[in-house]
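Please, structure for the following, as tokens.
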Amino acid sequence: MTRVTITTKKSSHANKFGKLIFDDGTVLDGMGFGYSTTVFGEIVFNTGMVGYPETLTDPSYSGQILTLTYPLVGNYGVPDPSIKDEDGISKFFESDKIQIRGLVVHELSQTASHWNLAMTLDEWLYNEKIPGISGIDTRELTKKLRTSGVMMAALVVSDTEIDVEKIKKQLLEAPKYTSEKFMDVVSTKEEKTYGTEDKSIVVIDTGSKNAILRNIRELGYKVIKLPWNTPFEKIQSYNPKGVVISNGPGDPQNCPDTVETAKKLIENNIPTLGICLGAQIIGLAGNADTYKLKYGHRGQNKPCINLETNQVFVTSQNHGYCVDPDSLENSDFNLWFKNADDKTVEGIKHKTQNCIAVQFHPEAAPGPYDCKFVFEELDKLIGK
């Protein structure tokens, strides 16, 4: 019988001054942890109970201050970021860095214990120069965002007293989330290849999670990850069996190059799957419209109905924009999935071409694996 050693570590970058300041003037006091700095971003909430290493490294959170609604965070620490799988893809993280601008929690566990522990949450944030704040009533904060919608905020962590009025002025002058262009930040700058198989799938990287790459590899395809603005002709030069347009941050209408590429993929009937932002991009390419949700869907417990089977799936989600359901009637798509809570669009299928898209995350990471079959649906399109 193998004995497992459980590693335990104590927080070393906590008990600082911390304030969370909203653009409506609201100021919340808390305990700062992680790195001492000031950041500005759109504040959002995630209802997941576990999975903060995957969540914090999801590029879809670029530009955002993240609130975790589960009351205690950090008790199992953080694994070693340097550990890779056999393809060289990070084993426990969804990208090569923390993507959020700041972290808001109710209670930071000052002791972390886990067999896979490499560092504490506050240590990880400190190493990557990300501020965190605890002692915040995250339930009340979430109610505020659900009522008012997401808003801009400043998160300040400091070793000394904080000048609130100065930060309020800086917040009003900070760039708005809706105006930021994220693709140059989150997308790969060069081609990256995983695997050596003859048959390949191209991933258009608009902020791709590593789990998408892992799931394609599990299907037995080589993965060729390309920049967000790669033209159709360049994609075709790789002779891929199919294409995946990935998840990512921000407004899909800020990705006109990718929308244009998606149009050509559809016209040429290349088997294509869109995920999250990729679903919105595909929607735009097929004459549907998109819009910004009041507070978005972020968590691992979002129920979606497959309208073909009337089966409900529990899904992992992270998005603030969505395909407009009213625009589908005059588009090239049929509704495939819808959200059981608010009836928003969760999946679409092209009426004539080999193109499908889902708003949720079939790759999970974190979250339930109920929807991994979506990758198999792409494989079926390729098999046609």
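The chain has two domains: 7-178, 183-383. Residues 44 and 66 are 5 Å apart (CA to CA).
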